[in-house]
Amino acid sequence: MPAILCDLDGVLYQGDSAIRGAAEVVDWLSEKQIPHLFLTNTTSRPRSALVAKLARFGIDTQENNFLTPPLAASQLLLAQNRRRLALFVPTATCDEFSAFDISEHDSAEIDAVVVGDLAEQWNFTRLNSCFNLLMQNPQAILVALGMTRYWRSSAGLQLDAGPFVKALEYATGRAAVVTGKPAAGFYQAAIDRLGQHDHIYMIGDDIHGDIKAAQAVGLTALLVRTGKFTNADLQLDVVPDAVLTSIADLPSWWRAHTN
Predict the structure, then answer these.
(1) Which terminal residue of the chain has fewer beta carbons within 10 Å of its beta carbon, N or C?
(2) Which residues 6+ apart lie within 8 Å of 192 measured at CB?
């Protein structure tokens, strides 16, 4: 039985508006009993909030339908017994790290600095505090909840966490451990969570974070012309396995290209 990995923002919804036909497609996935998992680099809200948001669009999901960077990061840090954290993530996301000791002091002894998308909350003071914690704690790792460069909101394109993580890598000379897209480990965690399937398809709107990254781990990648998609994406050296006008075209594509 084939399975599906599906991005959220830009595929099922954009900002606070659903993509036309998204709810019907998720219902179709359930009716056809097609195994699926929703992947997102969103670090501004916990999984419970994602369930509630999709419910407002008429999409019925549960928390275990999602793999998020905070969840992947928590699993990684627990496995490495790194318990003392400094969090640079939105307040709502802190709940995903309730099993850890959280420090808010620049001079604290920590095991890891976790960086997510703080959007307008980033400023020199906060970024410099993150930098100093890493410099004062050479044993600490820098954990990035994704390396997405930008995303499209109702106000237009906005910087995501990636550029800020890159600044910290450059300043500290320390490579980040990435627990969100486009890291291969994040996709492998999703594959492992789905279990054994003869074919897995990834559906996304990001030519690099969704398409190129999914293909790099052997997945078939479908690009949708919604969200952050631009026509220039089709002129790059990344070639999607298929291009859909939107997620609404998935059932007809599926019937034509899968058994």
Answers:
(1) C
(2) none
